[in-house]
Specification:
By secondary structure, the protein is an alpha/beta fold. It contains ten helices and 13 strands. The chain has a nine-stranded mixed beta sheet, sandwiched between helices. Strands 3-2-6-7 form a four-stranded mixed beta sheet.
Length: 330
């Protein structure tokens, strides 16, 4: 038995999201705890899973706020390092009228980039059923070394590896480097979540099935989940099965921050509950339906980490709408 259901490594930062206008007509921003890896864990905690986070924040007011917020979710923070010199990374989220968003980052450097391999507690990785990471922990040489070491340690201990490219172009010196690091992540993982935009970036095609086929043919990833925003999501399993589910569109959508991370957590929860070798068409359908519903609910909140939907809220949304349509094996 492993102590942790899931362990993640990567960025932990403050998302400043727009929250109205001041009396003087200036935009106001709310400081929300953020960062994809911890968002994933926060949702897994809602499913009753045991989780741990590995990362670094500044030893400043923002870093202390983040540390407290993550601990409040029940996530193990024993390997959250506080940097005495480099400040906590900040991101400003600019929201479009349709709820989509763009980012401005203050990370040159940011504390999350300063994690070193020697600061990573290997015993946490050896005690994990799933290790999850993204590409942002490979934007700097030293934190990339820490990431690769963590992947190797987790794999040696028999953990499943999960990867989300989570492409953020402004954080890369050039996009060729981003593509190279994403290729590494995909080459190491058993579970991949990738958006339609990332499929187009990585494979050169906007056709989701064609893009996933290219990835599957080269990397033989057992489970690939493609997210398509308002168009829903698809799951591809062992190159033999394909399921598709429509999105749950909510009229109360505010912004989409955290939707992909919430989706990712639901995928990981299904794997934790059933194993990676026992996913049939019915389970793939159930996985997508739950993931789409949860992702929709988080878009009705500002931020993500502290406001993840409960399991009951997710199931209630599914019951209200009824079942999605499962597409047959392709």
């Amino acid at each position: 038995m492993k102590k942790y259901d899931a362990v993640t490594l990567g960025e932990l930062l403050v998302d400043f999201t727009m929250n109205g206008m001041s009396g003087q007509g200036n935009p106001m921003f709310e400081a929300n705890p953020g960062g994809a890896p911890c968002n994933v864990l926060a949702m897994l905690q809602k499913f009753g899973k045991k989780t741990a986070f590995i990362g670094k924040v500044g030893d400043d007011s923002f870093g202390k706020m983040l540390r407290e917020a993550v601990a409040e979710q029940g996530i193990d923070i024993s390997n959250l390092v506080m940097d005495k010199e480099i400040p906590t990374t900040l991101a400003f989220v600019h929201t479009a009228p349709d709820g989509d968003r763009s980012f401005s980052f203050y990370r040159n450097p940011g504390a999350d980039m300063m994690l070193r391999a020697e600061e990573v507690d290997r015993s946490i990785l050896q005690d994990a059923r799933i290790f999850h990471f993204g590409s942002l922990s490979m934007t700097d040489m030293e934190v990339e070394k820490a990431t690769r070491m963590a992947v190797e340690a987790a794999k040696e201990a028999g953990a499943l590896i999960s990867f989300d490219p989570n492409l953020r172009p402004p954080l890369w010196r050039n996009l060729d480097m981003a593509k190279e690091k994403i290729a590494y992540g995909i080459s190491q993982c058993h579970i991949l979540k990738i958006s339609d935009d990332e499929i187009a970036f990585f494979t050169g095609t906007t056709d989701i099935d064609e893009g996933v086929a290219k990835i599957s043919e080269k990397y033989h990833t057992p489970l690939i989940c493609a997210t398509m925003g308002k168009m829903g999501s698809r799951a591809y399993y062992n190159g033999a099965q394909r399921a598709e589910c429509d999105s749950f569109l909510c009229k109360d959508t505010i912004e989409t921050t955290g939707a992909g991370d919430t989706f990712m957590a639901c995928v990981l929860n299904m794997v934790l509950e059933n194993g990676l070798d026992a996913l049939d068409s019915s389970k793939l359908y159930e996985m997508l339906e739950i993931a789409n519903a949860a992702a929709s609910l988080i878009t009705t909140k500002k931020g993500a980490l502290k406001v993840m939907p409960s399991k009951e809220d997710v199931l209630d949304l599914i019951r209200k709408r009824g079942a999605c349509h499962l597409h047959p094996i392709f």
